[in-house]
């Protein structure tokens, strides 16, 4: 049996915990007094050395001066980019991003908070967060930015002695892709075993040149070369007939959409309520 003293002690601790929770709840409502607005991110992988766009959209506001946009990156102490009152605010910008970022000012009024990142580096990969405040409220969303290299292939026919050879060549890929060949006649056959693929490091020592050859091809058949890594997929089709060569190439990027809206006040409320309920048991 618990003594009267213990019961009083536990009651007091419980009361204190409940009071603290209530205060947190009140402060929570005070801080996020305005309602939350929806913010959505969408991006595809960045191609090393080129410009990339980290997409972010939000519920528009009629006044540009009310809109604040903040881009941050996990593990980076400074800001990636800050925009408020219709202009860039870059005094807290991290060294890594100096001179490489831009918001599209004329698009902001329409709800576009996308970030342009110039000269994408492998090290730009990571978790980014797009936070937007307007007169209606605030919201944020995260995205995972991947970086690498990808390029469209060129398809060639090498006419050589008795047997013809197809060559599928792409100048820049990273990480090292997988190359597969198929023929599309009546059925789709996997020809990866009769092909030869080589990877040669480019001069900057990161991206690689991809060359894949397929031997013993037959006329009137469509052959497909697929170059693929975890950020992009390139496809080259080629059909050689007695009179012509038909080629098509296609580059497709993996896109990530990781809208992670902030906890809205009602959600916070229910979590605290559940906590209070658990403590009361
Ligand atoms: C935002 O604006 C940029 C620059 O004009 C554009 O490339 C991008 O597609 C826009 N994003 C959306 C979601 O409209
Ligand atoms: C095919 O052509 C290449 C140059 O185009 C040549 O080096 C190679 O010896 C040829 N191979 C055959 C089997 O004819
Ligand atoms: C494609 O089909 C034609 C006729 O149907 C056949 O002669 C040829 O060998 C086939 N090619 C391949 C690669 O299967
Ligand atoms: C083709 O075959 C190779 C090895 O036999 C295999 O690694 C590859 O996944 C296959 N590709 C397809 C598209 O089935
Ligand atoms: C294909 O690659 C193998 C090694 O993987 C090599 O021995 C062979 O000579 C290559 N064949 C051609 C035609 O390039
Ligand atoms: C690439 O690597 C080679 C050998 O490892 C080195 O000599 C060269 O300087 C490197 N190039 C760059 C741009 O780092
Ligand atoms: C390709 O053709 C050569 C010569 O015609 C033949 O020796 C070889 O077995 C063929 N290879 C394949 C994979 O069909
Ligand atoms: C390819 O198709 C054309 C017209 O359809 C035909 O004349 C030719 O004989 C075919 N060639 C082969 C190698 O099947």
UniProtKB/TrEMBL annotation:
GO BP terms: adaptive immune response; negative regulation of T cell activation; regulation of cytokine production; regulation of T cell proliferation; T cell receptor signaling pathway
Which locations, inside or outside the cell, does it occupy? Cell membrane
> Where does the source fall among the domains of life?
Eukaryota
A GO molecular function annotation here is:
signaling receptor binding
Where exactly are the transmembrane stretches of this chain? Answer: 7-31
**Keyword vocabulary terms for this entry:** Adaptive immunity, Cell membrane, Disulfide bond, Glycoprotein, Immunity, Immunoglobulin domain, Lipoprotein, Membrane, Repeat, Signal, Transmembrane, Transmembrane helix
- Ig-like domain location: 49-146, 160-241
Is Transmembrane helix among the key words of this record? Answer: yes
Task: Give the CC-aspect GO terms.
Answer: external side of plasma membrane
Q: Name the Pfam families for this protein.
A: C2-set_3, V-set
Record's function text: Negatively regulates T-cell-mediated immune response by inhibiting T-cell activation, proliferation, cytokine production and development of cytotoxicity. When expressed on the cell surface of tumor macrophages, plays an important role, together with regulatory T-cells (Treg), in the suppression of tumor-associated antigen-specific T-cell immunity. Involved in promoting epithelial cell transformation.
UniProt record similarity statement: Belongs to the immunoglobulin superfamily. BTN/MOG family.
The protein in question is named: Ig-like domain-containing protein
- Which species is this UniProt entry from? Mauremys mutica (yellowpond turtle)
């Amino acid at each position: 049996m618990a003594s009267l003293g213990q019961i009083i002690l536990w009651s007091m601790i419980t009361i204190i915990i409940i009071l603290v929770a209530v205060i947190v709840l009140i402060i929570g409502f005070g801080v996020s007094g305005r309602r939350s607005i929806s913010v959505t991110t969408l991006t595809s992988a960045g191609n090393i050395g080129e410009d990339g766009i980290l997409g972010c959209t939000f519920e528009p506001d009629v006044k540009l001066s009310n809109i604040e946009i903040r881009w941050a990156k996990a593990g980076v102490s400074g800001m990636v980019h800050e925009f408020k009152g219709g202009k860039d605010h870059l005094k807290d910008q991290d060294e890594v991003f100096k001179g490489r970022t831009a918001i599209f000012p004329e698009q902001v009024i329409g709800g576009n908070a996308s970030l342009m990142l110039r000269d994408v580096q492998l090290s730009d990969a990571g978790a980014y967060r797009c936070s937007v405040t307007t007169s209606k409220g605030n919201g944020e969303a995260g995205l995972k930015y991947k970086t690498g290299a990808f390029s469209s292939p060129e398809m060639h026919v090498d006419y050589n002695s008795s047997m013809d050879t197809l060559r599928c060549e792409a100048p820049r890929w990273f990480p090292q892709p997988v190359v597969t060949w198929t023929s599309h006649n009546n059925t789709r056959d996997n020809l990866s075993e009769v092909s030869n693929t080589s990877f040669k490091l480019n001069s900057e020592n990161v991206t690689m040149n991809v060359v894949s050859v397929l031997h013993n091809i037959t006329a009137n058949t469509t052959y497909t070369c697929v170059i693929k890594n975890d950020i992009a997929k390139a496809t080259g089709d080629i059909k050689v007939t007695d009179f012509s060569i038909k080629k098509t190439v296609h580059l497709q990027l993996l896109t990530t959409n990781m809208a992670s809206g902030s906890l809205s006040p009602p959600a916070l409320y229910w979590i605290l309520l559940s906590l209070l309920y658990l403590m009361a048991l």
